[in-house]
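Example record

The entry below shows one chain as it appears in the dataset: sequence first, then structure tokens.
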Amino acid sequence: MRTGIIDEMQENQLSDEEYVIYRTKNSHKHDLATAKAWMITAKTLFPRNFAVQLEAYTTQKSANNPKEAARYFSSLFFDFPNEAELWEEVQQITCALQKANGNIISQFHCDMFSHMLTEVQHQLLLAMAERAEDTLEHCRLMLVLLSMLPQFVDTHGKKLADTLLTSEKHSTYQTPVNCFRKLLVVDLLPTLLSSRTIDVPQKQLYRLILKSVDFYVSWFASGSTLIQGVEESELKAEEAWTNLFKIMFAMGRKLGWELSSMFSINNRELMCQNLWSFYHSTPLGGEDSPNFRQLIYCTTVVLVESLYEYVRKINPLSFQIPNQGNKVDYTPLLLVPAILLSRDNDQEPVLKRRKDDSSSSYSTLNVTVTKGCHVPTATTLLSSFLTAVSCWELLQQTEELRSEFAKICSHLHTETWLWLPSFVADVLLYQGLYSEALTKLQSLSSTLLNPQSLLLKSAGISFCLRNHFAATEKILHVIADLSAESSDPSGHLTIIPCSSSPHGKPPLHFMALNHTEIVQYSVSILVACFRDQAFRNGNCDFAIGHLIVLLQYDWPNNASLLEESLEKIRRQGQFAYKLFSSYVIQVDILEEIAFLVTDQGGAINMDIFPPSATQLATQRRMTTRRGDLGAREDFRAAMKRQMSRSQENIHNLIVQFMIREREAILQAMKI
């Protein structure tokens, strides 16, 4: 309002209330003391006038006096509940409380709120929530209330949980990763469960456990931080499992669970020990008994967490949406049977775990991880794998546990977990149930496990089942589909352990799905298959020849197999292998073969080189029979030519052998 003559003319037209407001505003520009006096006068004279009381509050707000403003606004809130301007201010306050970093005005509102009496704060937030027309906004405001005033969780907590569950049920969201579930699991449950006095029915608590697990697993599996219905999510991957464990700890404490304390342990092995110890020492009772329930739910949560870590380590892309423009440089890992070849290379596995006689949870397992995997990653991989397997086995111990776990899986929609069937196959492999593991693998589609991985794992299992032909056929298929890239494995080989294992079962190995390790594992399978073929009774020259070719790849590892091959040739007195000149170039091996031809070596008759031009003209073959000195000289010359090729790339040569000689390799396996 303008000052001067116009002000004086208008003063006479003002009501009493408007006049004191005018004088307050006018004085505020020049004399704060006078302005305050006018305001006190106005509040005293007109206690039921909204405009006067609002001006009193506005004056304190302009003066940045949150304490006095809180007192004035509290009066406004209770005395004038139907004024639109009041609710506009209330909305600004509630918005400020929800902002992590606001502007100056937002900060003022937060400071003012902190000076209000608790009951005023409670009634203000509650009233604003009740006025919200949108259910989601109502729930958000109720959460603000409970976060600011946790002492009211007993009053509003259960009702809010029911509202969120009902709202999600009737919403259009098709995934657990939605705004209602996020508010329930991430924002409400920690506060709700922190109350020692709130009484939540057991069935509701069990339901909330599954809702929590479902939310976090689905959120991880989505490969995105986005949550439907939430503009910005502050949920962080590294905090998610910690949050779930905290929920389980609080939930278990409320239910009186003995196992709840294990969720404060940051050690998977100890957690498994607790679970198995509880199973062996505590009568479980029926499916509705507290002991049965705590075992099934606690084991399921540990299983899901360790399974997530396991899958994330062997293939992080299972939980990531490809970032366009940023190629993820990571080689997936694959669990396969390690192949027993000889005792030359006995080495201590990366991890050995011994079985407790009273438990079936820790079956003895020799397992190695590719050397290309960093030690911390390998340690986490092995720990999470063993924990997941242990929990899986525990949940299969009785028909009651299996049945209830199946119900939980149905509730969690595990059929949408594309990585779960592959894990089940790994469990069967771990248990030595090779036929079942192979059947499980054959049931997987290419969307669950890529064809290369499927063939490699199936080949290893087929070998364990002593189906050498099937193993060989699958390996040759893998090699045929490999890219033609050249890869020199020298200095980078990961030796598949050739150590013995309990119960005659081969140890397990996590191999990298790169060109070099795929070829290496393929060679290991073929060497193992031809070892059995070559040393049977009777003449097996083709199998021995193929074995000698393959032994070059990882030479001098498994050198004892060459010794056995040479001894078999000595016993036979002769050896014929038409592919020798094309694929055998390793100097040590060539020298050993050449020695067999000498009198000291046994004067073995060798038919391993194609005839020379002279021999073709005379219709002679390049053999090493006694008395045929010309043939022996030709043999020595041919051997020198072979040795001149010793610098050729062995890796590429062996790959060519497996591709070009596919039919010959399979034929030898049939003999």
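Notes for this example: Strands lie at 333-337, 351-353, 365-369, 508-512, 574-576, 605-607. The CA atoms of residues 418 and 447 lie 8 Å apart.
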